């Protein structure tokens, strides 16, 4: 009986060391770093590819790669921060016809589920996207990488502007400005 006691102590010490090493490697990312992040978009206008950027956004998240199913994210984009590299177009986008920023200053995405995919670092994020008072359930494919103590989430999502009443009146047709808008994101978190 006496010789088993040291073996038990060594086994417990080894298990505790393994547990500590595993928890030391696990990281939960909770602080979005807007200055190290970006949200851009592509669209077609009269058949020509155009780009834009949203310069201001904020968010809350909770993501641990070891427990992706418990992750959550809320992202709010300041629609008045849109920049399509043309001051006149930027002013037009703020009007009631497009974003109607006085009435709807922010677009919002709130996750409802996160699922790890078979490929390492690939995830599927489902959530509610709200723009201009219109809500749609969307599925966002995202890739996660860890770099220098930070987590980087990258992906893209195609939305139809018509589903969110972006472009009303004469702009409701898609002959000049296409319906599809591809939103690209690179979000960095600590």
Automatic annotation (TrEMBL):
Domain Lipid/polyisoprenoid-binding YceI-like: 29-190
SMART domains xref list: YceI (SM00867)
The entry's keywords: Signal
InterPro entries given in the database record: Lipid/polyisoprenoid-bd_YceI, TTHA0802/YceI-like_sf
Signal sequence segment: 1-26
Source domain of life: Bacteria
PANTHER family registered for this protein in UniProt: PROTEIN YCEI
Name recorded for this polypeptide: YceI family protein
């Amino acid at each position: 009986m006496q010789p088993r006691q040291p073996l038990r102590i060594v086994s417990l010490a080894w298990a505790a060391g393994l547990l500590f090493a595993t928890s030391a490697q696990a990281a939960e990312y909770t602080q979005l770093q807007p200055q190290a992040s970006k949200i851009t978009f592509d669209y077609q206008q009269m058949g020509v590819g155009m780009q834009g950027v949203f310069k201001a956004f904020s968010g809350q998240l909770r993501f641990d790669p070891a427990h992706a199913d418990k992750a959550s994210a809320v992202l709010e984009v300041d629609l008045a921060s849109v920049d399509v590299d043309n001051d006149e177009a930027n002013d037009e986008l703020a009007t009631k016809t497009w974003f109607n920023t006085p009435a709807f200053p922010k677009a919002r995405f709130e996750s409802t589920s996160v699922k790890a995919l078979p490929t390492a670092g690939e995830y599927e994020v489902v959530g509610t996207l709200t723009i201009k008072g219109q809500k749609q359930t969307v599925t966002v494919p995202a890739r996660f990488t860890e770099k220098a103590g930070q987590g980087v989430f990258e992906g893209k999502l195609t939305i139809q502007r018509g589903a969110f009443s972006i472009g009303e009146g004469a702009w409701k047709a898609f002959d000049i400005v296409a319906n599809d808008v591809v939103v690209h994101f690179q979000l960095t978190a600590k």
